[in-house]
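It is worth pausing here to work through a concrete case rather than discussing structure prediction in the abstract. The textbook approach is simple: state the sequence, then state the predicted structure, then interpret. We follow exactly that order.
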Amino acid sequence: MDVCLSSEQRPGCPGEGLGSPDGWFEAEEKTVQKDGACGPAGDLDNIEPSLQSLQKFVPTDYASYTQEYYLFAGEKIVIQESIESYGAVVWPGATALCQYLEEHTEELNFQDAKILEIGAGPGLVSIVASILGAQVTATDLPDVLGNLQYNLLKNTLKRTAHLPEVKELVWGEGLEQNFPKSTFYYNYVLASDVVYHHYYLDKLLATMVYLCQPGTVLLWANKFRFSTDYEFLDKFKQVFDTTLLAEFPESSVKIFKGTLKWD
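Step two, the predicted structure:
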């Protein structure tokens, strides 16, 4: 079961006062050693791929962050959030999906599975999937990728079999160029609280369809707030064989399993 243990408000961002992404990485490396969860730094073979991502994705300079603590899959997870961006907050669908993942570990068998998360936000779902053994690609819009990468590294470096990768994904744009079907295949596509009152629902559905190939399972968790959420669900059912896996009445979250319909 998900547990939000506590929160701590603090100003600034992880790179505050640091002149470059390299400096931010050095600060994160020290944090990892101080926390004691990831062991000594210096394993360049493991660090280098993430360092390359860090040099690309720099955190947005929000005025303030909070640190929220979660407990999933037997691990304490620290997530840096900011209420200044929808993409820097853990929403109810994410915690519900994490709860479902940890309660169905044997059934899902994430060990070495290739997983892509749509709209990863601050990264909680991708972190849990990584802890469960998956090879994760976490995607979102450019402005949230720095904070996403920070949270992934803080919670997975030296703690998981596979370091997650971060990639930019704008729904409906550059899909074949950035995620060619001949190269990229995913056992699971994960999405939580990506459906709300915005103007990109058709592009979202097209992206979901594109990323799913024969054998891909899409797990979508969402808090149902508006009539547009149910309208999207109707369209979703037209292209995916859909199963309701779980409901959380206290938070109005539903979790669906979808497999793409094939003619």
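Step three, interpretation. The mean pLDDT is 84. The beta strands are 3-11, 64-72, 75-81, 114-118, 135-140, 165-168, 188-192, 217-223, 240-248, 253-260.
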